[in-house]
C-alpha cells in the first residue's frame, strides 16, 4: 500500500511517501480504503518525537478519516464491504489502507461530503467533550478560550456561544482575533497584552472556565479564574506546562482538569452518539465548517509545513484519490 511515513524524528523533511507493507486483516477487524484523512498538530508532535509511538519504524501518522470498507474479518458481522464509514481514533490513517476494530467505526450523514467529514470529526469531537464533559458548560458561563481561531478553538467558540456562554478569546494576530469575534466571542485579546488583568476587569470576577491548549500559559489561566473556577488543559502547543503545587489550588477553590478525547470514545455507542450530535450541530448551524485546504497524500511534506505556519487558519486534509 501507499503511505506517508517517517523512520526518524525531525522536521517535515523526514516524511516519505511510498510503498510499505499493507496492514494485516484479523478475524475481528475491518479494512478501510480512506478517501480523505485529517492532519492535526498531534501528527506534527508525533513526527517530532514528542508523543509516544507504538511499534517500530516506519511510523505513519493520522487518526481520523472517512472512506469505504474493502474487507471484513471472519468474525465481523455488523459491517459490510462497500459501507461508507468514519473514524476518529484509528492510528496509521495516513495511508491507502487502514485497519480498524469494528467498534471504532461510525456511520455518517449522507449529505455531508467526505472532505468535510475528515475536516470536522476529530476537532469537532474534541470541542464537544471539552464543553460537555471536562468543562460541564452551562448557559451564562463566562469562559476563556485560548488559540480561539485554531481548529478546536474555533469550534469551541461556536459551540459555547450556541449554548449561551460568553466567550473571551485569545488569538495571536488581529486577523485571528477578528475571526474569533465572527465565531461569537464577545471580546478578544492578544498574547502580548496583559490579558489576565483585562479579562478580570471585563468580567468583573474572572472566568468560570479557562480552556488552555498552549500549556506554558497555565499559570495565567489559573490567575484569570473566578473563585471556584476551573482550568481545562488539553494541549501544549507552546511547550510543557509548569509544575503546580496542589496546595496552590486551595486559594480560591480552583481546579485543573485534564482533557483527552480517548477517555470519552469508550464504546461504539458513545462514538456514534457523539458523532450524531456533532453533525446535528452542523445541520442546525450551531457550528460551521472551517476553511479546508486539501493536499494529495503524496504532498504530505507541504501539508505539514503549512500546518506549522502560525499564519494558517483552517483545516488541512489529505486526499488519497490519486491512489485509486
Q: How does the SSE layout of this entry go?
A:
Blueprint: E1 2-6, E2 15-19, E3 30-39, H1 41-48, E4 59-60, E5 65-72, E6 84-87, E7 98-100, H2 114-134, E8 142-145, H3 151-162, E9 166-170, H4 174-182, E10 187-189, H5 195-203, E11 207-212, H6 218-223, E12 225-233, E13 255-258, H7 268-284, E14 292-296, H8 300-308, E15 315-319
Parallel strand pairs: 8-9, 8-11, 9-10, 11-12, 12-13, 14-15
Antiparallel strand pairs: 1-2, 1-4, 3-5, 3-7, 3-15, 5-6
Helix pairs in contact: 2-3
Residue-averaged pLDDT: 94
Following the backbone from N to C, one meets helices and strands in this order, namely EEEHEEEEHEHEHEHEHEEHEHE
- What is the CATH first-level class name of the largest domain? Alpha Beta
Are there runs of 5+ residues with pLDDT below 50, and where?
none
Helix content: 25-40%
The main sheet comes to:
6 strands, mixed
Radius of gyration over C-alpha positions, nearest whole angstrom? 20 Å
Walkthrough of the structure:
The chain has 324 residues and is of the alpha/beta class. It contains 8 helices and 15 strands. It has helices at residues 41-48, 114-134, 151-162, 174-182, 195-203, 218-223, 268-284, 300-308; strands at 2-6, 15-19, 30-39, 59-60, 65-72, 84-87, 98-100, 142-145, 166-170, 187-189, 207-212, 225-233, 255-258, 292-296, 315-319. Strands 3, 5, 6, 7, 14 and 15 form a 6-stranded mixed β-sheet that branches. Helix 4 (174-182) links the parallel strand 9 and strand 10 (187-189). The mean pLDDT is 94.
